[in-house]
Fold these 3 entries.
Entry 1:
Amino acid sequence: MKKVIKIKLLKDFELLCKMLDIEQEQFFQYYLDRISLPRLMSIHPEDPEGLLTDFFLKNTPVEDTKETQEYIEKKAKGKYHHAMMTIAGTELEQPECEEQLRVEVKKWRDEYVMLRKKLKEKGRPIKIINYGN
């Protein structure tokens, strides 16, 4: 899927890219290509500890209320997490495991998105916090 987005690049980021002779588009594409829940759970050889996806999951600041976060975690552990862990616990080779995990995520993705949407409609804020430099 290709999507064009507009982002404001900070001067510090532009400076660093110039100093290291890095194309900004290539920088973003490199990291975006490696952020994947199935890849994380299947222990991909390029990122066996899942550092890139883990960084994304832990460092994307969102404004979930404590109640919202607990509710989502409870739902996820009960319904989605068990199925994913069952697949990840098999002795499949990494590429096959990653693909089966991807299929599993697609099964419940829409339901999960609807859950978050309903929580947002009930007044539970779920949004990315904007930080400036």
Note: The chain is about 65% helix and 0% strand.
Entry 2:
Amino acid sequence: MDDYVSKPFERTRLEQVLSHWLTKTSNLQHQADKLEQHLQPSSKQNVSDDQAKISDSAQTKTQQVLQQKALDNILALHQPGTPNILRRVITIYLDTSPKLLDTLEQAILANDSAKLYSTAHSLKSASANLGATALAKLCQQLETQQENFPQAKTLWLELTAEYKTVEKALNLELQGLTDD
């Protein structure tokens, strides 16, 4: 069995690899069933109509920028009784990505193709893991502009604008997360 799990992680593939190595697969299935119940949308009976409309609107905007499946794959890794893993992943992304954007700009200004490629690749992977596919595609395009620095500068400007959109969507996503 090939135990390699590529990014972005998918719950089913992780379960396959883990069940191969763990002897208590029935315990895994029980936890997966509990997690599925935990992830079911809760009723909005206790929420006023205005709050529900705002929440739905924010969710729609988030879904337009972020692929929900990627976020769900991260949520599927959450263990009850532990801090919310998606909150942690989003927070780390929001903390580290501005530095990557600065490094990209410095690499472009310095005509440093190696740094441009490695930093664009890092930001591409992190963005794809959170479902920010438009941002990841811009990073991928930037990876290929190692020797075309005027084009890289143009792509960097598009990328920073898209990042601001992703940042807003991730902050909206954080607001809707619980800590359990």
Note: DSSP finds eight helices and no strands in the chain.
Entry 3:
Amino acid sequence: MPFLRLHPEVINRKERVRDREIDTIIGKNKRDAIVTICERKTKMAIIHKLDEGRKAEALPQTVFLSLLAYKDKVHSITSDNGDELLHTKKLRKA
């Protein structure tokens, strides 16, 4: 996973609160999906069902709304290279 190697070592060590990791879990039928947003140090997780399943276009808004209450508690968000996470670049602007 080359993308994960690009972020700073402080994130890799999982010693700093407010660093988040995002991932999707695809259902057995390949249509349903959930997004998980985990705080890397404390392991606190936010989990939401994606209304449009695996469609990547719906992911940024779901993540944005999920983190809105925590906006002052997010330092970084990392993800893997999954196709459904390609649209998360839109979150950088939020």
Note: The mean pLDDT is 80.
